[in-house]
Amino acid sequence: MNQAEAILMGLRIWGSIGAVVAAIFLTIGMDRIDEDAREAYIFRPLLIPGILVIWPLVLWRWYLYETGRELWTRRYDPPRKSHYAVGWILPIGICVIIVTGLTLRQTWPVEIAPVRLSAPAEVSQ
Amino acid sequence: MSDNDKPFFVGYLPTPKALRGLLLAVCVLFISGLSGFGLALGVAQDDPGDGAFRFDYGRQTVTGVVELTPYPLLRVTEGNERIPAGHTLMLAGGGKTNVESRAIPLEGQLAQVSGTMLQRGALDMLQLRGGANGISAAEGEVPQIETVPLGRWKLAGEICDGKCLAGAMRPGRGLAHKACANLCLLGKVPPVFVSTQPVDGSEFLLVTGPNGEHLPEKAYHYVAQFISLEGDVERRGDLLVLRMDPDTLEVLD
After folding, report:
1. In this structure, what are the phi and psi dihedrals at residue B198, rounded to the nearest 5 degrees?
2. Cβ of A110 and B146 within 8 Å?
3. Out of B147, B220, B253, whose CB is closest to A2?
4. Alpha carbon of A124: minimum distance to chain B alpha carbons (Å)
5. Cβ-contact B193, B205 below 8 angstroms
6. How many domains does chain A have?
7. Which one is the CATH code of B52-137: 2.40.50, 1.10.260, 1.25.10, 2.60.40?
8. Which residues pair with B65 in a beta bridge?
9. What is the pLDDT of residues B140-194, one digit of tens each?
C-alpha cells in the first residue's frame, strides 16, 4: 500500500466510523441530551456530513452531557480567549500559504528536449 | 467596566456617527480587496485549454482490437467520422474508474466500444457506457496489429491522469492537482506523460511500468510535478506508450 492508498483508506475508515456514530447519535443520543430536539426529525439528516467529519467531538460532547460534566457557562471560554490571536493568525497564515505556494511553483521546462538514448529494437507482435 | 460613551456598532441599529467613516472605509477596502485578490488569483492560473467531454459529438461507437498495456486500449478497425480506423483509443470508466475487468476477457479480440469522448487536441479517450453496452465482443477476423519500438528516451514533462488531462477536469497545479490525479491513477485510469516537446510527433504518451505493468508505486510521488525520466517508447497505432524506468525519476527545479 502506498501513501496515497493509505490516506484514502484512512479517510474511508474515518468516514465509516462517523457514519456509525451519526446513525446512533441521531436516532438515540440526540433525544437523550437535547430535549428540544425530541420528536423533531427533519433536520437530523442535515447533520450527517458534519458528524462524519467531527465524530470524535460529537462523542466527547455526548459523553459530557450524559455524565453531567457539561458546564454550559464555560462552553465558549477557550475559543473566546484565543479569538484575538486566531483573528490575526488566520488571515496572515492564508496569505503566507498562498504567496509561498505561488513562489515555489515549478516552471514548465519547455527548453528540455526529448533525447533518444538508444536505438529501437525490432518490431514485435 | 463598560464605557457608555464609547460608540458600539450593532448591525440592525443606526450606525453611530463616530463609526460611519470607519464603516465606510472597511466596506470599500473589504469589497475592493476581495475583488482584487480574486482577480490576482484568477490571473495567476494557467490557461486550462480546450480539453472537455465532447457531449456535442454524441455517443461514439467504434470497433477494434482490445489491447492491454495493461491499461486497456482499442486499436480501431472500424471507425466513424470522429474516430477513424487506425486510431488508438484509451478507455476509461465513469468517474475515477477503469474498465479493465471488462476489457481483460476481450484482450486480443475484436470488440465494439461505446461511450463519450474526451478530447484535448491530439489526445483523446473514450469513457465507456456501463456493462456490455460499453464494451462487448464483435464478430469478424482479428487483424494483425503492430507494436513498433522507438528506443530508449530521456524525457522532461509531467505525469497526469489521462482522463482529467483529456478534458474531464481542468488541469491544475500543485497539491490539489496531484491529489486528484493520484486518486484517478489509483482507480487505474490510464496515466499520460505530457512531454515538453513532441516525441516522434506526439507530446502525449501513455505511461506504464518498465515491464508493461501499471504505473509503479514510486511514480505516484512524482505525479503532477515537472520531472525528467527515462524509459522505452513504443508506438501502438497513433499512440505512444512509455515504459518508464522509475529509478530515473527526477524532479526538475
Report:
1. -60, 140
2. no
3. B220
4. 6
5. yes
6. 2
7. 2.40.50
8. B75, B110
9. 889 988 999 999 999 999 999 999 999 888 767 778 888 899 999 999 999 999 9
